[in-house]
């Protein structure tokens, strides 16, 4: 099963930061078990939403050069409050340090301005064909799919290295 935990990117600045939202709905199947009678977004899903936001920042900054972005390290993870159905988790990821393949990001999740989660994440990007040359076509398909999803998430997509904020 694939979880897309970003519903919309509201602001993105290549090489700097991204802001995105996740609307939590009671219709999400995992809430039936987490927890019966007290549905809350699992902490690992909040963390994954921050990873996904950071990955979109990396892809946008690098003009979708890499097919894969993975979590390499999560440090100083703090869960401060619950996210319940009907609430909107606002996720931010701000670049702290950038290497050729890794980004270190300061990430946070809030609901109505109140902190729910924060962490320092290290994400690594690569192409599958770097270790398995026969996967070059898979890389191309994954990158195309990511571009298409990004166009749905970020309605005002522009060329990288531009700052664009969504108009209301």
Task: Walk me through the structure.
This protein has 168 residues and is of the alpha+beta class. It has a domain at 8-63 and 70-124: Hotdog Thioesterase (Thiol Ester Dehydrase, Chain A), CATH 3.10.129.10. It contains two helices and seven strands. It has helices at 43-61, 136-153, and strands at 8-13, 17-23, 68-79, 88-98, 102-111, 114-126, 163-165. Strands 3-6-5-4-2-1-7 form a seven-stranded antiparallel beta sheet, with helices on one face. The protein is globular and about 50 Å long.
Could you give a quick summary of the protein structure above?
This protein is of the alpha+beta class and 168 residues long. Helices cover 22% and strands 37% of the residues.
Strand order, sheet with most strands = 3-6-5-4-2-1-7
Count of DSSP E strands? 7
H/E topology pattern: EEHEEEEHE
Q: What's the total helix number?
A: 2
Main structural class: alpha+beta
Please name the CATH architecture of the domain at 8-63 and 70-124.
Roll
User: What is the 3D shape?
Assistant: globular
Report the helical percentage: 10-25%
What is the CATH C level class of the domain at 8-63 and 70-124, in words? Alpha Beta
Please state roughly what percent of the residues sit in beta strands, choosing from under 5%, 5-15%, 15-25%, 25-35%, 35-45% or over 45%: 35-45%
Span from first to last CA? Answer: 33 Å
């Amino acid at each position: 099963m694939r979880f897309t935990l970003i519903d919309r990117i509201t602001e993105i600045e290549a090489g700097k930061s991204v802001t995105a939202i996740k609307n939590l709905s009671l219709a999400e199947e995992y809430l039936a078990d987490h927890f019966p009678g007290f549905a809350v977004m699992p902490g690992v899903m909040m963390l994954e939403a921050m990873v996904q936001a950071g990955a979109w920042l990396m892809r946008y900054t690098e003009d979708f050069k890499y097919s894969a972005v993975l979590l390499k390290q999560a440090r100083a993870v703090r869960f401060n409050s619950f996210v319940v159905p009907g609430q909107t988790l606002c996720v931010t990821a701000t670049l702290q340090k950038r290497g050729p393949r890794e980004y270190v990001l300061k990430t946070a999740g809030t609901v109505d301005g109140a902190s729910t989660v924060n962490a320092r994440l290290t994400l690594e990007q690569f192409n599958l064909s770097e270790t398995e040359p026969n996967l070059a076509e898979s890389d191309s398909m994954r990158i195309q799919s990511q571009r298409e999803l990004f166009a749905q998430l970020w309605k005002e997509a522009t060329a990288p290295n531009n700052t664009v904020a969504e108009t209301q």
